Task: structure prediction
Amino acid sequence: MTPERNIKINPAGNDERARSLIALIDNLIEIVNEENVELAKGLPASRLKQVDEKNRLATLFEQCVAEAVGKTANLNVQDRALREQLMDRILKLRVAMDENVMRLRAAIDASNRRIEAIMQAIREQIANVSPYGAGGRRVTSAMSYGTNVRA
Result:
């Protein structure tokens, strides 16, 4: 027998683990929804206050899923209503994360457009004041030296 099969399954423990996972998912959904609201306002992704907390919760969620997949923790929920609640939360998290990915991509695109506009303005300003042309040669503007002498 493998060590994984020697683990005694405590149905009450699995239900409690499921409740903890539901609470974690609820917190993650709340943070992701807050971030989505901020992104919808047009704020750059780098200025969002939810990023650190979202990353922390996502890491915890990944660990829980990895444990379940790795069979170090068997999540066999006995209570049907609790199992359905867990599945509902997972679906809600997926919807929130799909929206989050879409909004983050839009924020990145907007940031790239801002950067390109700034770089274009800098290039234009440099071109307007540079004494050198596109070929690297010094460009002298035509100057008029007039004298206003009356005899």
About this structure: Residues 1-11 have pLDDT under 50 and may be disordered. The chain has three helices and no strands.
